[in-house]
Prior knowledge:
Layout: H1 2-12, E1 20-22, E2 28-32, E3 37-43, E4 49-55, E5 58-64, E6 75-82, E7 88-94, E8 100-103, H2 106-113, E9 117-128, E10 131-139, H3 145-152, E11 178-181, E12 194-203, E13 209-218, H4 224-230, E14 236-238, E15 251-259
Antiparallel strand pairs: 1-2, 2-3, 3-4, 4-5, 5-8, 6-7, 6-9, 7-8, 9-10, 11-14, 12-13, 12-15
Amino acid sequence: MRLKALASLIALAGAGSALAQDATTDWEMVRRPDQKSVMAFMPMDSGLTVAFRCVDGVYGAVIAGLPAASRGARTRVLRIGIGDDEPHETIWNVTTDLTVAVADYPAPLAREVREGGRVSILIPNGAGDGRNLRHDLELPASPTAIDETLTACDRPTVDPRDELLPEIEEDGLPRGVTWAREPRPRYPRTNYAEASAILSCVVQPDGGLEQCVVESEFPVDGAFGRAALAAIDNARIVSPGETPGQYAPRMIAFRNVFRMR
Length: 261
């Protein structure tokens, strides 16, 4: 199981067969400058492998070795608890390998777990027959490796936005917020039939969005993040209970779904 998980992660990192790997007191690393990829990963005795990686400017967090997701599923729910926090619901993208999942918010997760310590992962129906499966991991600290992956993707090693990110609702916006003008990104030139990109932005007084950041995109090599950012200029939100033109500045986050028609 561990060898399969590592092979899946290396493929996601674009490492190919000629990988450069080193094992130190930090997390293990795979670096491929020719493919602009760097990955920090940690195999666990439970059979899971946790990894953070930068591939040509796109950042990601990956868990491999999970029970297989349902065929046809695009996303799956993992309940993650860090330290003494109770597990809370997080959404992950399902890859072509159904035992591998890619996080919606990889950089905040990387900054949170690099100190090491207890991480609980509850997998709904992971044990079959409606029974949940729970992994209680003890992750070692990463003094430099995880920061190397963040820096490679121009992601800050400390970001106050982490504390402001709301949880995504089913419609992709925080509770109570709706679109006045929904962003409609153009489909980039790609062979992918579907994709997604998660953006976080700061709401302006008129409902416009600024300081937008691509939190994640999947697949990583389809330019879907850039397409989502390009569609933000004319987007507007409505916040019931607030006066239009006087909206309080705050963070929102939402999912852009791309499907070829």
